[in-house]
Design goal:
The chain is mainly α. It has one domain. It is built from six helices and no strands. Helix 1 packs across helix 5, helix 3 runs parallel beside helix 6 and helix 5 packs antiparallel against helix 6. The longest helix is centred in the middle third of the chain and has 40 residues. The protein is elongated. The protein starts with a helix and ends with a helix. The mean pLDDT is about 85. Keywords: Cell membrane, Membrane, Transmembrane, Transmembrane helix.
């Protein structure tokens, strides 16, 4: 089913554009703000600057995580609803609900990986801009240099992939639950 999922994404890229855009923007926001954690933990950063950077990263990073989940969930729900007939055809041709679930989650993860990879450079630039803005307003010392490291990268990738997989499962549950029960009832009646 994973091969079918990747082929589906490759054959109809326009269908996944909203999901890609949601994953890209969400990952860029999460990584840019979480790079402030990397910057705060760098050697030579004073306590006041570190506190400011960690607070901003924590608050916006938390809201960014919710934003990513809801944006990707909305895009995937629309995508799955538009494909209801295609998914029904797969079910009628012998695909189990688990196989369909793996296919749709695989598509979501493939699109999220591409979106996250594309978001790294904008996140680095965005994080650097954030540090400069904090320096311009006197909240962070001028000697602090921006750092983009493991916290930013792992949080961006992790949040985007988990949000995409969770959103795909949620979208599938909403769309396929009723129809699968209808198919099961019809099979029992015969």
């Amino acid at each position: 089913m994973l091969v079918l999922a990747l082929r589906s994404v490759r054959e109809r890229p326009g269908r996944f554009l909203a999901t890609l855009l949601s994953a890209f923007l969400g990952a860029a926001i999460v990584m840019a703000f979480n790079s402030l954690h990397d910057t705060a933990g760098a050697p030579g950063v004073d306590a006041v600057s570190s506190e400011t950077l960690r607070t901003a990263a924590g608050v916006v990073g938390g809201y960014g995580t919710l934003l990513v989940f809801f944006a990707v969930a909305s895009a995937l729900t629309v995508n799955v609803r538009q494909r209801a007939a295609e998914l029904e055809l797969l079910r009628c041709s012998g695909a189990t609900p688990g196989q369909i679930r793996r296919m749709v989650v695989g598509e979501a993860l493939a699109v999220a990986l591409v979106g996250t990879a594309a978001a790294v450079l904008p996140a680095v630039l965005g994080g650097r801009l954030l540090v400069e803005l904090f320096q311009d307003t006197g909240q962070v010392a001028a000697s602090v240099d921006h750092s983009f490291g493991a916290v930013a990268l792992s949080s961006g990738v992790g949040v985007t992939l988990v949000a995409s997989a969770g959103a795909a499962l949620l979208a599938l549950r909403r769309v396929t639950r009723g129809r699968w029960r209808t198919v099961q009832r019809r099979a029992v009646r015969r």
